[in-house]
Fumarylacetoacetate (FAA) hydrolase (Mesorhizobium alhagi CCNWXJ12-2), 674 residues
Amino acid sequence: MKLATLKNGTRDGKLVVVSRDLTRFTDASFLVSTLQAALDDWKRISPHLAAMAESLEAGAVPASRFHEHDAHSPLPRAYQWADGSAYVNHVELVRKARGADMPESFWTDPLIYQGGSDAFLAPRDPVVAADEAWGVDMEGEVAVIVDDVAIGASVDEARDAIRLVMLVNDVSLRGLIPAELAKGFGFYQSKPASAFSPVAVTPDELGDAWDGGKVSLPLCVDLNGKPFGRANAGVDMTFDFPQLIAHAAKTRALGAGTIIGSGTVSNKLGGGPGKPVSEGGAGYSCIAELRMLETIAGGTATTPFMRFGDTVRIEMKDKAGHSIFGAIEQTVQRREG
Amino acid sequence: MKLATLKNGTRDGKLVVVSRDLTRFTDASFLVSTLQAALDDWKRISPHLAAMAESLEAGAVPASRFHEHDAHSPLPRAYQWADGSAYVNHVELVRKARGADMPESFWTDPLIYQGGSDAFLAPRDPVVAADEAWGVDMEGEVAVIVDDVAIGASVDEARDAIRLVMLVNDVSLRGLIPAELAKGFGFYQSKPASAFSPVAVTPDELGDAWDGGKVSLPLCVDLNGKPFGRANAGVDMTFDFPQLIAHAAKTRALGAGTIIGSGTVSNKLGGGPGKPVSEGGAGYSCIAELRMLETIAGGTATTPFMRFGDTVRIEMKDKAGHSIFGAIEQTVQRREG
């Protein structure tokens, strides 16, 4: 089934079930008001939501037109957002661009950071920044929402806890990252609010593209209307979601509704870095990666980070070319005052 | 007023108003079921809670005996937990112990990390660890809960957003920190679930001890029944709460119910490091600080981190010697399986 949260003036919005083709929805809020409430009691509630989804496909329940613009992030706020960095290729490039070696352990020990989850952006909200020098960059990623995960859970237990899949724009302020990471405590100011796709789907909606741990489809990232990234999220993912979840649960339990991200999707090309989409490559899911390649090749990065007015669109399509999650589409805006 | 959340088998517990002397409570859940719900609509709901607190003091409402053991953390789960490191003295000592200089900017630019907030421990819950080598340590701190804070809020706006004050044991796994921080993305596995004091109080309950930005009272940290720390939370706090909150809101809005921590409370002594309580000093709010002093003095740390069965108690008393927030009291336990 496919679920979305419509804006209704409340902090957590209203839960609806969306048709497979994303054209219609039926109100689910009389059954359970919010997605978090559904996740809190998933075993009891999800069969009813699934039945509602079937009825919606069959035209057996009242339905209204679904507009992606009306959707909030599926969880407008969450109790946890932890983002992995599973495409180690991407990490290696970041390091290479600044002349730093990557420890061998990065291929065996997942990297993860704790993100802010108290106020996500809606998928069509602007990204607001005070200064272009903050270096706004998108990071196109896949994310999963999990059920309760016990402390010390195994990879198999982690796999069984995956409830929903969605996309995320993990907005990064590249200009603030070096100084903040140098302080040693990780990201805070350099990771402003993220936005998630209008729709979250159960893994069965992905069919063959879901192997229990990752999504084997290209992530379409467009910058100002032009294809920028088409990296396949199922390729070069060194740690799959169950591994990331088990890593996150090593020293503490994870509460239902915890969101775990994949990190920026990134594909190698013939063992080396990728090529732009315009040259037949898979491109990039963030600008930083292209800038790193420019730096490695020519000493300086020439592509700028996002400027006020620039727009990024992040989407994923099934093999028939239909959007699975709807699109994240965000424009960078100057914060006034 | 003083608020607590009683365990009732649900994820968010039941909101109650507690008497000033912590002996009685009256159920507030018919008015608003949870503390998060009260924070979501604070302006409208808090006057009713305040009236209830007055009636409770006057004996004008039904009351039951308040047992700290029955309390969950005031927010059993929260949408954000961000912990500052405002006692820069503590940070300087950590660095000194490993022979690293501290950048001058640490005195002017607050350090903060994003913590996990999806499943806090109750104030009397055990701290569960798989291995003593993880190096379980307490960190005694003060924390505030804020209302909505706009992106780019000023220090004055941040001050006005403080709603509640409480204590926290920001449990740390010292054995896991060096390797995790070396990866560059901050804490994750090395910061398991934190626990908060049984009671959260509005700042007016602190009287003269609250100056709008910090609490000028000793934080009592006892290890296995013996005084370990008596550092004054109002002394050597380089950044007060409004400064920490404004720092946190620089690039993103903070949602109502966001918890901001002070970092480990730490006092200097005559410009240098402190002395143990047994020698007339203010002692320490975490074991690591004592170990750092041992390392600086003699080359090796001799005091071990917490072992299975060890207990820490964290409390703060008013000038008359009465507990303000109730006590956090946690024993370290081996995780089975």
Summary: The mean pLDDT of chain B is 95.
